[in-house]
């Protein structure tokens, strides 16, 4: 992958014939107790020293990713708009900075339906974030969850089920990665012999979970399944030299995974 542009809210790369743009929606600070050791045990004073804290809290980047082929742009996740913390909701600024017109985004696919991934469908002023949207793809197992979000009611009937193996186009294929949520889905992006795995919430705290992938997150729907999925995907990415893109990896959230003697290592691009 080659970096071709960057700014405070975006970083764009070439991958084969595609352009993949990391879009920074912002960040959220979370208490350390959200991290869970096996047995659902939270961390306290035993948090490893390499994990940075901001006023005693974990700082998670919130990223979305646009994949363009020169004609169409597919957006994977949409950030939170004004539905959560005021440190988030900067996706429109990121798109503008990256010179991506919202009218060019006609397909949106979600990794899962947690609020920091779906609420960007609606601008803070209540208008549609993507007025030319024609295809809205939600993991099949989470359709009912999506349709229970009152703020997104205008999109309930427009949502289409997304199943693993159902290619979005010639370059983007969904991969089932349940655990963090029942329908959590990654997207394998391929072009020119290169592969990028857009993996949603597989890792929340990169300073810890690459070294110790057994560490889970309080909001994982199934912590044991999330651990198993994380190990499987980290190994797949490392052993195949795939690039990865994570919603909560430090912005821009794109890099490569390799194995170490005890776990894995992430190198940002």
UniProtKB/TrEMBL annotation:
Domain Metallo-beta-lactamase: from-to ranges: 61-248
Keyword Plastid on entry: no
Sorted UniProt keywords: Hydrolase, Metal-binding, Zinc
InterPro entries from the UniProt entry: MBL_superfamily_lactonases, Metallo-B-lactamas, RibonucZ/Hydroxyglut_hydro
Pfam families: Lactamase_B
Family label: Belongs to the metallo-beta-lactamase superfamily.
UniProt-recorded name of the protein: MBL fold metallo-hydrolase
């Amino acid at each position: 992958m080659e970096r071709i542009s960057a700014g405070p809210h975006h970083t764009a790369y070439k991958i084969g014939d595609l352009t993949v743009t990391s879009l920074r929606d912002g960040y959220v600070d979370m208490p350390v107790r959200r991290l869970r050791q096996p047995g659902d045990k939270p961390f306290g004073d035993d948090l490893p020293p390499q994990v940075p804290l901001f006023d005693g809290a974990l700082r998670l980047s919130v990223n979305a990713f646009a994949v363009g082929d020169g004609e169409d742009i597919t957006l994977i996740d949409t950030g939170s708009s004004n539905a959560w913390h005021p440190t988030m909701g900067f996706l429109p600024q990121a798109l503008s900075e990256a010179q991506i017109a919202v009218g060019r985004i006609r397909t949106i696919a979600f990794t899962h339906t947690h609020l920091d991934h779906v609420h960007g469908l609606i601008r803070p002023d209540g208008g549609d974030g993507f007025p030319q949207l024609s295809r809205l793809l939600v993991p099949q197992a989470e359709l009912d969850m999506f349709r229970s979000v009152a703020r997104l009611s205008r999109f309930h009937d427009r949502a289409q089920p997304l199943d693993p193996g159902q290619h979005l186009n010639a370059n983007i294929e969904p991969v089932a990665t349940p655990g963090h949520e029942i329908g959590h889905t990654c997207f394998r992006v391929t072009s020119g012999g290169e592969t990028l795995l857009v993996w949603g919430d597989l890792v929340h705290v990169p300073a810890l979970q690459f070294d110790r992938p057994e560490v889970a997150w309080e909001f994982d729907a199934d912590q044991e399944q999330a651990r198993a999925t994380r190990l499987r995907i980290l190994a797949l990415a490392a052993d195949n030299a795939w690039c990865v893109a994570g919603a909560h990896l430090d912005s821009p959230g794109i890099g490569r995974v390799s194995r170490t003697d005890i776990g894995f290592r992430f190198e940002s691009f």
